[in-house]
Amino acid sequence: MLKLSKAKKVFNPGTINQNVALRGIDLTLDEGEFVTVIGGNGAGKSTLLNAVAGSYGLTTGQVIIDNQDLTSAADHQRANLVSRVFQDPLQGTAANMTIAENLALAIKRKAKLSLSRGVTKKRREKFKEELSILELGLEDRLDDKVGLLSGGQRQALTLVMATIEEPSVLLLDEHTAALDPKTAEKITKITKKLVKQHNLTTLMVTHDLEQALELGSRTIMMDNGQIVLDVAGEERATMTINDLLEQFNQASGHKITNDRILLAQ
Ligand SMILES: Nc1ncnc2c1ncn2[C@@H]1O[C@H](COP(=O)(O)OP(=O)(O)OP(=O)(O)O)[C@@H](O)[C@H]1O
């Protein structure tokens, strides 16, 4: 469960560069709920994820995960609860380590075991099992260096690393944006499978409106540091991209300005 309560973030307060990035966000994700987040440039999407991850503190308001108030906890203190996958497929994995060693590191973060103890026979079986979900054949390449993998394979591995220990909250930060369309589609499918398999509470920022409606069960749109639209259920299930853009225009009073969304249309 994730709950943001009256979350406000002001950058450079009291200076000429003061910028209110979040204007009192109230957002609750139930256990296992998968919410997609869209919005224009500078709407506050990254700031929202950063606030959950603890990359920086909120100016006011609260972040609650599994009924624990983590508002003042730093990112390393939230590492056991929050996993995040970034846009760059090279960011989440260590190129000069093997697939098995990378996965062992992901487990070690929680188990506090040494790396050598991390790659046990039993764990190799678990890694194989997890990797087979991807249907990329990585389960047969446990001892290959990650640097040998393609961008898409690395992002798929990053997703397994982020989900294998079943974090309380999974944050996906435009994690398919840097991939070619075909690979992005594969990673989208893998995301769906892994989130379902582990029943993860997930918040995903995307500029791909089709993906925003395809994944998860609820979509929120942000504008100027606020949630201006929150759709789920039957309404969302029958929604087209045009409907979504139209509703955004009505709710925000202007057309969406996001270079990447516009390029993708
Ligand atoms: N570290 C920072 N210092 C000062 N201002 C910041 C900082 N990070 C973000 N901002 C400002 O906060 C606002 C929200 O930014 P944020 O990056 O969250 O938007 P976004 O919705 O992710 O946009 P985009 O889609 O363009 O990446 C913007 O006005 C941005 O300039």
Describe this structure in words.
The mean pLDDT is 91. With 265 residues, this protein is α/β, with parallel strands linked by helices. A hairpin with a 2-residue loop joins strand 4 (60-65) and strand 5 (68-69). It is built from eleven helices and ten strands. The radius of gyration is 19 Å and the shape is globular. The protein has one domain (2-263): P-loop containing nucleotide triphosphate hydrolases (Rossmann fold). Helix 3 (99-111) runs parallel beside helix 6 and helix 6 (151-163) packs parallel to helix 7 (181-198). The two termini are 33 Å apart. The strands form two sheets. Strands 6-7-8-3-9-10 form a six-stranded mixed sheet, sandwiched between helices. The chain has a four-stranded antiparallel sheet with strand order 2-1-4-5, with helices on one face. The longest helix is centred in the C-terminal third of the chain and has 18 residues, at 181-198.
